[in-house]
Design goal:
Elements lengths: L3 H6 L5 H16 L5 E2 L11 H13 L2 H5 L8 H15 L8 E4 L1 H13 L5 E5 L6 H6 L4 E5 L10 H7 L4 E7 L11 H18 L4 E5 L22 E6 L12 E5 L6 H15 L6 H8 L9 H16 L12 E2 L8 H9 L3 E2 L1 E2 L9 E4 L4 H19 L2
Parallel strand pairs: 1-10, 3-4, 3-5, 5-6, 6-7
Antiparallel strand pairs: 2-8, 7-8, 9-12, 11-12
Amino acid sequence: MLVQKYKEMLSAKSVIRELSEFATARGAEIGYENVFDYSLGNPSVPVPRELTDVMVHMLREEDPMTLHGYSPSLGIPSVREAIAAYLAKRTGMPYRKEHIFMASGAAGALAHAFRLVTQRGDEILTFAPFFPEYHPYVDLTGAVLKVVPPDTEGFQIHFEAFEKMLSPKTMAVLINTPNNPTGVVYSAATLRKLAEILKRKSEEYGHDIYLISDEPYREILFTGVEDNWVSSFYDNTIMCYSYSKSLSFPGERIGYVAVSPFCRDAEDMVQMCGQISRGIGHNCPPSLIQLAIAKVQGKTADLSVYETNMNILYKELTALGFTCVKPGGTFYIFPKALEEDAKVFCKKALQYDLVLVPGDTFGCPGYFRMAYCIDTKKVERSLQALRKFVKTEYGA
């Protein structure tokens, strides 16, 4: 008999994916260049030339058995050493390879982090608006994801609501900064207050509360925005990283878990990740990709286009009367819709070939997300459609 839980999930497919599929189908009708598809957060800039050169050289010159053979359960030691050395240099924290576990992107890293610190019935708290896949990621482990209501004023943390929702069943708090879908970056003040609460509540409950920091957009920060290293604020932090966005490398599924060197039992936790892999069939990302990213630590694709696109859209949206918190990073913007029901708003936008994602998907009704990881000229051309949509439907 088929497992009913997964069968039920077939009727609850990702809204983002459905809108992306709509955009593709509409593009087949009128030309994709005429569809202003802001649905999917798929990087739109090429990988850095250094990464391409590294991979070409490796494929031509290095031992195929090394490049394509199995890697150890925790990842290739030299790769883990390279990542740890980079993190130590960047942060001043004493990272070593024993703190690094190689994973298939941030999703794979999160899959391990959740299983490290929760058992069936335990709770993980996260903050709206949030990446909707967090629900299946957490719920299918047997733990329970609880969502703290949003602070819509600045999309930092609604601390009053957060403290009310904390309980002895809370084993971890999951944050995402820079944030999908808002583009907001948590301030140092926010992170300090979060750390203080977690320390206090850990003592009160008699067990550690872990901070799981989902950081695939860490390198996409805009001019003047403070670069806060989450792990430096709270010892019991498990950082989950992906190279998908920084290197424009999403299809290669490469990332890592980095347990803070100051975390209790940090080295045991990394070893435990290897055992978790046995249970979920993860068994390490490809050796070739691991070896390649080890050689380009600190490099990124040219991410400047995202700030250019953000400024164009933010200026236009605010001029048209939208309420919007200015993003500090990522390639997302999250304005308030011009009517109460954002799903209705986004459905109307489709008539103008504007593909927008309603905020209900992210636990924040009344708002919508635009993923502006598209060509700047297309962003500029979309403004005419946006103006027409707003004027025709809302008289603005």
